[in-house]
Amino acid sequence: MSDETVVFFPEGAFGPTNNCVGIGRVLLERGARVVFVVEESFAGTLEAQGFEETLMRLKPPPEVEEAPGQFWKDFVRETAPEFRKPTIEQLETFVLPVWQELVDGARYVDERLREIFGELEPDMIVEDNVVAFPAVPASGRPWVRIVSCNPLELKDPALPPTFSGYPTDDNSGWDEFRARYRELHEPLWREFSAFCEERGAPALPELEFIHESPFLDFYLYPAELDYERSRPLGPAWHRLDSCVRSVDGAFELPAGDGALVYVSLGSLGSADVELMNRLVAALAETPHRYVVSKGPQHELIELAPNMTGAEFLPQPTILPQVDLVITHGGNNTVTEAVHFGKPMLVLPLFWDQYDNAQRVEECGFGVRLPTYELEDTELHAAVDRLLAAEQPGLQEASARLRASPGTIQAGDLIQGLARKS
User: Fold this and answer.
1) pLDDT, tens digit, for every residue of 390-403?
2) CA 120 – CA 100 distance, rounded (Å)
3) pTM for this predicted structure
4) What DSSP line would sit under 93-144, residue for residue?
5) Do residues 109 and 56 touch, judged by C-beta distance below 8 A?
6) How many CB atoms neighbour CB 37 within 10 A?
7) What one-character DSSP code corresponds to residue 350?
8) How many CA atoms lie within 13 Å of 374's alpha carbon, on the beta-carbon side?
9) Which residues contact 164 (CB under 8 A, 6 or more apart)?
């Protein structure tokens, strides 16, 4: 595959970017030219990992220099009060504004993407986004879609509605949730679908903000957590059970003999400093040791003596060494925790995190707790219960995933498509 140029175009957040890094590294090692199309705020972060970069913007330049993904960090921090509401109420106050922002970005960057694809002349475009970028299908080149959110993003009438966090065995609220979603989102969807057609891409499927690729599609989720569908996905779809990237560098763990717990609310969730400090204070009362991902507001988060942490942590290096993961339920952390056989205590905040939290609990790989109503005693009891529990199913899943890395599977399929094209 040494003659091929593969362009990766991930969403401007660390989760999708890291998934693409794992696959991109496989292709790079096989001799492909791998180029990442990233927001200007990410400049240098992919080059530092051995890839080429091409830069773009999703909105006009700010007056001051941005950190990677800074817009979304600010957005989440300012919107955090909405996360205390039931998921059906978040549809209007959080989910719709996010879709609007994403759609606006796709409109703004479309011409620049066309320039990039024209300059690079890629043999393949791999995108991990939740909204369509018309320049991708309009390029006339083979392209791959990656779904790195919960697979409920791929709708099925026999499964709970996306973003609801509702259980699979109780459909009592499903119709109301879906009706409210349609009521709020249909006007934006119609407008964006028309824009896609104007820019040479197909119309969007009903109430969807992104196309399926006719060439190759991936969704990232372990089989042990996946859903039983009433409608099978099309032949272009492939499940990647995990997509764990390799990272360099060791990390010094906290001293002591207690159980070791990893705490991460993600690069966006950790922007809620009040929540982070409350969580740190509650965990400080336990006899366990903690490694805490402090995130973009790291200077405002003071850790307890039984903790260590930093703004950024090499998560794939740390997870194999811990006994438990406390997470917001982002798809990246959930799949990596299963990959390494670690039970989870899930504190969902927004988007698909409620769906992941619900699924982790339903499948017996952890517990879901109410993030903002959580009492310290409830948190302490859940931590102790998970640390004491046997997890044979989780360990079996981990052994299977580690024996068949999703990064290799994805690399093989992308390489096969490139050879046929």
Assistant:
1) 888 999 999 999 88
2) 29
3) 0.92
4) IIIHHHHHHHHHHHHHHHHHHHHHHHHH--SEEEEE-SS--THHHHT-S-EE
5) yes
6) 25
7) S
8) 25
9) 87, 88, 173, 174, 177, 354, 355
